[in-house]
Amino acid sequence: MKCYAKPLAACLLAVAAPVCAQSSVTLYGRLNTALESSWISGGPEPGSPARMTNNRSVFGLRGTEWLGDGTSAIFQIENGIALNTGQGQIASRNTRVGFDGPYGTLFLGNWHTPYTEATLAYDPYYATTAAYMALLGNGSAASTGNVENTSSFDRRQNNSLQYRTPSWQGLSGGFAWGLPQEKMTTPRNPQLFSWSGSYDRGGLNLALAYELHRNYQAANTHDDAFKMGLSYQFPTTRVAVVYERLRYRTASGSLTRDGYYVSIVQALGRGSLRAALGVASNGRGASTQTVGFVRSGSDTGAAQWTVGYDYPLSPRTALYGYYSRISNRARADYDFAINSLGVTQGTSPQTLAIGLRHNF
User: Fold this and answer.
1) Which of 1, 196, 234, 284 is 20 to 30 Å from the Cα of 292, by its Cα?
2) CB-based contact 157:108 (threshold 8 Å)
């Protein structure tokens, strides 16, 4: 007899019955906002506007129901909210339903791809204006299908079937298929495939990831991305490095771009000093098209550097501050992936932020 089929009073009285303890629902969230002074140097754009930014605040529900034989049904509904404007959207972030058991986790929904997840933890500024997806991944697609955003490899994929392996001796992996949902309206039949593998043991983490976008730029073409990462946690210092190669096939030819990222988190006092450097190389190839921020030729690269301090007030609440700058070369127009400023070629967006983050 299932617990949910019994009257609530009976279930509360039967606290010793295992069935009443085999389902759970958890409310969780992250509230993250900052005051920023942001400006663009090197062009006619106005300088130093004060603004309040939302750093991908969320709240959601997640739950499990025990099905027996080591298997559970799982669900999650995650909603994006904006503290600065009061706006939000239900199920706009990681949302799924599926099964979890001894052989891994299988689910359907709107979720980060394994490629995206592989190195998220390497970025100490993830989900802020200074996040590394300004350069790595070619921008951020917070929630997209196969046709809304055809450039970014840092994405949460709609209509996806996903699987995560259990961990074995520190090894784990993931797979996602972004179903060809748009075939009825897009004759080129676009779809996505994403894989990742990682090794996590002691203070060492190694990551490999590959993602394939079929028929994204044009029919009978494909784009792909490969990255590898390494991080190590020393007693008071964590160092992480990432290398990435993006390749696009466009109607006018191929387009390739390499990216590099390094971050250091150093315990200092009660908090931590955090520094990061990202580099996007010049694009290469015969393509005359621009895909996202990537184009071919000289002076099409950029570098982003960020330094700041994170100060925990409690296990769930922290104050933080940072300065971040993207230095674009003459023909590049990389912008912050979250809370963008709208740059032109050769200019440098910058921001100075002080923020408050609370997790529950």
Assistant:
1) 196
2) no
Cα separation, 112 vs 164, in Å, equals 12
What is the model's pLDDT at position 185? 86
Per-residue pLDDT tens over the stretch 240-283: 999 999 999 999 999 999 999 999 999 999 999 999 999 999 99
User: Structure pTM?
Assistant: 0.91
Contacts for 167-175 with beta carbons within 8 Å, 24 or more apart?
A: 167/200, 169/201, 170/199, 170/200, 170/201, 171/197, 171/198, 171/199, 172/197, 172/198, 172/200, 173/114, 173/197, 173/198, 174/114, 174/117, 174/118, 175/114
* Residue whose token pair is 């004060």: 50
Is 172 in contact with 185 (CB distance < 8 Å)?
no
User: Which single residue is written with the structure tokens 């390499």?
Assistant: 258
At 121-140, the pLDDT tens digits run 999 999 999 999 999 999 99
